[in-house]
Amino acid sequence: MKYAIILVLAVAATIESTNGCKIKRRSEFGDGSGDDGYYCVCDMTYCDEAPNVSKTTNYSKYFLITSSKSGFLFHVSNGIYKKSKTIDTSAPLGKITINRKDVYQEIYGFGGAVTDSAAMNIHNLTLEVSEQLLRSYFGPHGINYNFIRTPMGGCDFSMRPYTYAMVENDTSLHHFELQVEDNLFKIPIIKRAQKIKKGKIKLLTAPWSASLWMKTKNSWTLDAKLRPEYRQLWADYFVKFFEAYRHNGLEFWATTSQNEPENYKYIPVINNNTLINAMAWTAEEERDWIINNLAPTLKKNNFGHIKIFIMDDTRLSMPDWPKIVFKDKRVKDIVSGTAVHFYFDHFISPSVLDEIKELFPEHSILYTEGCAGVFEDQKVILGSWKRAELYAANIIENMSHWVSTWIDWNIALDTNGGPNWIQNFVDSPIIVNSTANEFYKQPMFYAIGHFSKYVPPGSKRIGIKSKNIANMRKVAFSTSDGGIVLVILNLNEEDKEILIQDPEKGTTKLKILAKSLNTMKYW
C-alpha cells in the first residue's frame, strides 16, 4: 500500500509527496476566515489511495488514520493499548471510554449522487482518469461507497428540465422514454461503478417533478402539485422508470416519492430561486398516494422489493411529517423509513430524530442529500478544511441520533460547481477540471472517507462516554469483523492529548492534531 507523506509549507504551494501525489494548498482568505487546507490532484500519472488496515496478531495494536488542516490526508500511524497503571496521567487529560454493551442502529453505508452533471463531468475525462475517479469512490483502495442516488429524470443538476413523458396528455405513457442523459451518461457511469464494486452498490432514486401537463400549474415552479386525476398515472410512471433501468441491467434498492416536497416554503427565502424543478406534496397526500397507488403498483409489476422512504426533505419537516405518515397503521409494512437532507440542520435539534426513532423504532432514518456551498457566495473552495469539518460534524451528529446511511450530493462537479441549468452551483468532494484532464480530491472527500472506508455496511453504533474534550466530536462503531472504530473530530486550534479507554483492551494516550479528523481502528 502506498501512503502519502505530506510536507506542510507556510505559503501557498504545490507539494510533490514521496509517492507522486501532487498536494496543493489553498491560500488564506483575504477576509481573515482562515479557511485553509490541502487537496490532492489526480491525473494520468497518479492518484492517491485510501489506506487499508487489517487485523494483526498483536491483540493490543490499533491504527490511527488522520487528516488535518495542516496537510495530512489519510496519514496512518499506530500504537498499542496498555494497562492503565502504565499510562502517564500526571497532566489533566480528556478521556473517551468505549462501551461495547450499548448497541444502537445498524449502519447501511455511505454514498453519493450520480446526477446528470456528475456523470457528464466524469464522462468528460479520459477513460483512464475517469477510472481513477470512480475507483476513488468505489474501488478496493477507495473510500468504499456502497450507495448511489440518481434522480428520476431531470433535476437542477441537469442541463435542462425534463421528464420521461414530455408528450402532452400521454395518459397511456406510450411515449415514455429515457433521455440522452440516462443513455449516454448516468447509466454508463453507474454500471462502471457497479463493475468496480462487483455489484455491491445499492441504488435509490427520487423524482424532482412530474411532466408539466400532469401538474396543477404548467410550470416547473416549486409550489405546483400533481393533479389528483394523475396519481395512478404517476405510480405507473415509476414502474416505467424501473422497467427501463432494469432493461439496462440496473436494479433499485429504494425510492422516495418526491425530492424535497416542502422546499417551496424555504428555497425562495434563501436565494429567491423559484425556477428549480420541483413538486409540492403534503404529508397526507404522500401517505395516501403511497398506500393507494405506489406500493400496490410496484408490487403488481414485480417491483415490490423496492423499499419506500418518505419525506426526503430537511429536519424542518420533522417531526410532524413522519408522525402523520407513520401513525397510519397501513404503512407499517409498506414504508421502510424516513429520508432526510442535511440543509438547515443547524436550525433544528437532532432530538427530532430521536423522537421519531422512539415513536417508530421499526423505521430506519437515512440521510440522502447534503452539500457545501449552498448558502455561500463562493461555491467551490478548493482545499476548504472548514467544509470538511462541516461534513464530519454532520455525520457524527446524525449517526449519534439513529441515522443509518449518509449520502452526499453530486460525486463530481466542475470548477464552477456545476453545470446546473439554473446556476444553482455548489461544492463537491471531487472537482473535475476536464480541460487539464485531472480532478481534485477536496478535504470533504477525506472527511467522508474517514467513515465510509472504515465503517462498513453491517456495522453498529456503540456507546461512548467522554469528559474534558471541549470542541471535539466523536462517535464509535463495532464492525461485523469484530473490530471497533472510533472517529474523533478536533475543532480546536491546538493539539490535544486524550486518553482512550476500552475495558477489554486497556488504555492508550492519543495526540489529536489541531483541526483534524481521526479514525481509530482495532480488533
From TrEMBL:
Entry's EC annotation: 3.2.1.45
UniProt catalytic activity: a beta-D-glucosylceramide + H2O = an N-acyl-sphingoid base + D-glucose; a beta-D-glucosyl-(1<->1')-N-acylsphing-4-enine + H2O = an N-acylsphing-4-enine + D-glucose; an N-acyl-1-beta-D-glucosyl-15-methylhexadecasphing-4-enine + H2O = an N-acyl-15-methylhexadecasphing-4-enine + D-glucose
First and last residue of the signal peptide: 1-20
Recorded metabolic or biological pathway in which this protein acts: Sphingolipid metabolism; Lipid metabolism; sphingolipid metabolism
Entry's Gene Ontology molecular function annotations: glucosylceramidase activity; hexosyltransferase activity; signaling receptor binding
Highest taxon, organism lineage: Eukaryota
Keywords in alphabetical order: Glycosidase, Hydrolase, Lipid metabolism, Signal, Sphingolipid metabolism
Matches recorded under Pfam families: Glyco_hydro_30, Glyco_hydro_30C
Residue span, Glycosyl hydrolase family 30 beta sandwich domain: 458-520
Domain Glycosyl hydrolase family 30 TIM-barrel: 107-455
GO biological process per UniProt: alcohol metabolic process; autophagy; glucosylceramide catabolic process; lysosome organization; negative regulation of macromolecule metabolic process; protein catabolic process; regulation of macroautophagy; regulation of membrane potential
This protein's GO CC annotations: lysosome; vacuolar membrane
Family of the protein in this entry: Belongs to the glycosyl hydrolase 30 family.
Name under which the protein is recorded: Glucosylceramidase
